[in-house]
Amino acid sequence: MKRIILISIKTFVMLCGISAFNVNAGVVFFEDFESGWGNWSADNGIWEVGTPTEGPDDCYNGSKCSGTVLDGEYPRDTNSRLISPSIILPEISGNQEIHLTFWHSFFYGQVAGRHIQVSIYDNQSGQWSDWETIDESGPGSSPIWSFKSVDLSSYGGEKVKIAFYHINAATILAFGWYIDDVEINSDAPSVPNDPPTPDDPPTSSGDCVATYQLDGSLHIPCVSVPNGFGGTIMYEADMQLIPFSSPFAFELTGAKAK
C-alpha cells in the first residue's frame, strides 16, 4: 500500500545521517538574514527579506531568508539584484581556494533565470566595476532547498560585492528565487554528503546521498527501519513529488531492503 509522506530536505538529512554544512574556521563572510536586511541592498525593488508565504514551504534555516517577492510571483519584465555588502577576500596561494556557497530554492518560467555576479572595487579610482557574471542558470524549478557552490578564487585579495541577479524578460510569471545561509569560505568547501543541487550532477563517494530530480522523483538510498527485534533493516526508497502540494508531499513509489 502506498503512503503519502510529508517531508522536507531537512528530514532527508536526518533520515540518512547526512551531515549538514557547518560554518567553520575558514569563513570570511556569513549571512542568514535572521536580523533582516543588514547592509544588503536590492536594485529595482524586487527582492525582500522575511518569511515566505509562497514558493518554498519555509526558509532553509531559521525563520528569515531573501526572495523575489515573498508572498507571490515576481512582476513581469523586471530584472533585479540582491546585493551583498562589500567584502574583502583574503589572499590565497598554492591549493587554497575561495568559494561562495548558499542554499536556494527557485521557480522560473521561460525566458527567465538567475545569475551570480561580482563587482570589484578599484582603490585608485574609488569606483566599483561593472557587474561580471560568473555563474548563470536558465529556467527551471527546485521546490526543495539545494546547495550551491561558486568558485571565487580568481578574486583573492580583492574588495568585492556579490549579486544574486534575477532576470525575467517575459510575461510568464513564477515565484522566483529564494536565498538563505550565504557564506564565503577561504578553504575549499567540504560538503560531500549534502544533497546534490539541480545544477551539479550527483557524485558517488560511498556515503548516503538523497537525490532529487527536477521531474519530482526522489531516491533515498539509506533509510534505517527498526525490525522489532532490537536491530534495524536498511532500505532504499523511491518517492515522487505530488504537484502543488504544500508542505511538499511525496508518494512512496517503491522500497526494498538492502
Summary, kept brief:
With about 260 residues, the protein is mainly beta.
Secondary structure blueprint with pairings:
Layout (H helix, E strand, L loop, with lengths): L3 E3 L2 H8 L10 E5 L9 E3 L3 E4 L14 E4 L11 E4 L3 E2 L10 E10 L3 E11 L4 E2 L3 E6 L2 E12 L7 E10 L7 E10 L25 E2 L4 E10 L5 E10 L7 E9 L1
Antiparallel strand pairs: 1-18, 2-14, 3-6, 4-5, 5-14, 6-13, 7-13, 8-12, 8-14, 9-10, 9-11, 9-13, 15-16, 16-17, 17-18
Describe the structure.
It is a single chain. This protein is mainly β. The protein has two domains: 69 residues, no CATH class; 164 residues, Jelly Rolls, CATH 2.60.120. It contains one helix and 18 strands. The strands form three sheets. Strands 3, 6, 7, 9, 10, 11 and 13 form a seven-stranded antiparallel β-sheet that branches. A hairpin with a 7-residue loop joins strand 17 and strand 18. The N terminus is likely disordered.
Enumerate the spans where pLDDT stays under 50 for 5 or more consecutive residues. 1-25, 188-206
Rg, Cα atoms, Å: 20 Å
β-sheet strand percentage: over 45%
Major beta sheet, specifics? Answer: 7 strands, antiparallel
CATH class of the largest domain: Mainly Beta
- Overall mean pLDDT: 78
Helicity, as a percent range = under 10%
CATH architecture title of the largest domain = Sandwich
How many separate domains make up the residues? Answer: 2
* H and E order: EHEEEEEEEEEEEEEEEEE
Total DSSP E strands:
18
Look at the helices and sheets and give the structural class: mainly beta
